[in-house]
Amino acid sequence: MMLKKLRLRFVAINMTIVLIMLSVIFGTVLAFTRQNLEKESISMMQSIAADPMKPNWNSTSAARLPYFTVWLTPFGATRSSGNSFYDLDEGDLLSQLVQTARSSESGTGYIPEYSLRFYRTSHLGGEYIIFADVSSEAATMRSLWRNCLVIGTVSLGVFFVISLLLARWAVRPVDRAWTQQKQFVSDASHELKTPLTVILTNAELLQDESYSDGERRRFSDNILAMAHRMRTLVEGLLDLARADNGAVRAAFTDVDLSALAENALLPFEPVFFEKGLTLSSEIEKGVVCRGSEQHLRQVADILLDNAQKYSDPGTVVCTLKRQGKSHAVFSVASPGAALTEKERTDIFKRFYRLDKARGSDGSYGLGLAIAEAIVREHGGKIWCESAGGVNTFFVQLPAE
């Protein structure tokens, strides 16, 4: 429901903006067109007013509109020249037009009922009124209005469809984030439910005095073990929250990746040895990047810890080398069953585990999600590849 309202609001905002823009554009076009037509007709009448008695105005390009000129004499109005189609033999019509023109305070005006524009002028001591038939201007404006309405309606329809598609595209990240958030809350609740149930059950049994001291000690150990598991989970959630809130970027300094990788390998060597695994490294010297040393070390620890937990017997190879002039790549390759393309993507999701039974070893499926969040804050990327019975995790970072 919330996403539906968000999409509708997005469409409404888009359509409002488009409607305002189209109204401004078409309004400007109509206003300028009308102004230009009026200006051209007045300019024509001004040209004729320079010599209103000239008999051959009809044969020049100046007289682009039908017009007629009225010479006002002391004895009445006399039509002197013109090319309009008005029948001015009726004195009443001519008198009405002259009276309307002379009653105007301005020297120019428009008589809408006859589609006439007039222009009063004086020439050689006489008074003249030039009337121009501007019905073609009105027809042009009506046609332009219709075209604007048709184009505007079609444009609104097209933009409405585009807005619907854009709304789905724009809301998709929100929908995905909302789904991930709900899944995250559900998974976190599920992961917390089990240790909480164990803690509550053992706490209740611990209060029962009928149990022996040995049994009560076992209940206490169970509570302590589950509390440690919960602390591990909470710490992982806090790490994710810090990465999402940009706390990683706030601690950026120049980091010697070569030294960091070598130091990260040292504590894992005995761990690998105890599990019968061989840890090999190829670390290029002098690789430096801009980042948080603490969090980059955490990424290395996560990849090495996963390798010692889930690797098949064999050799785990850790490498660090430059890639081109501006990047460095840190990788951890371990033998194991090949991961499918879907698994290589899903493995970076929060609480995702390839084997649900891995939860018994204290793993909550947060390690790679934390690593991805940290690498993303460093402007890099992390991914997994499987080939030849070896699964390799790569971390690419900008290098100085």
Q: What fraction strand?
A: 15-25%
SS content category: alpha+beta
* Count of individual helical segments: 9
Helix content: 40-55%
Chain-averaged pLDDT: 82
The CATH topology of the largest domain is Heat Shock Protein 90
Shape: elongated
Placed side by side, the strands forming the largest sheet appear as 2-1-5-4-3
**Describe the biggest sheet?**
5 strands, antiparallel
Please indicate the count of domains: 3
Cα(first) to Cα(last) distance is 48 Å
CATH level 4 superfamily of the largest domain? Histidine kinase-like ATPase, C-terminal domain
CATH architectural name of the largest domain = 2-Layer Sandwich
- CATH class membership of the largest domain: Alpha Beta
Number of strands: 12
Structure, explained:
This protein has 400 residues and is an alpha+beta fold. The protein has 3 domains: 2-139, no CATH class; 151-240, Helix Hairpins; 250-398, Histidine kinase-like ATPase, C-terminal domain (Heat Shock Protein 90, 2-Layer Sandwich), CATH 3.30.565. The chain contains 9 helices and 12 strands. The protein has helices at 2-49, 91-102, 135-206, 213-244, 257-265, 269-274, 293-310, 341-346, 367-377; strands at 67-73, 76-82, 108-111, 116-123, 126-133, 253-256, 278-283, 288-291, 315-323, 327-335, 381-387, 390-398. The strands form 3 sheets. It has a 5-stranded antiparallel sheet, sandwiched between helices. It has a 5-stranded mixed sheet with strand order 7-9-10-12-11. Helix 1 runs antiparallel to helix 3 and helix 5 (257-265) runs parallel beside helix 7 (293-310). The longest helix is centred in the middle third of the chain and has 72 residues, at 135-206. The protein is elongated, with a radius of gyration of 43 Å. The protein starts with a helix and ends with a strand. 22% of the residues are buried.
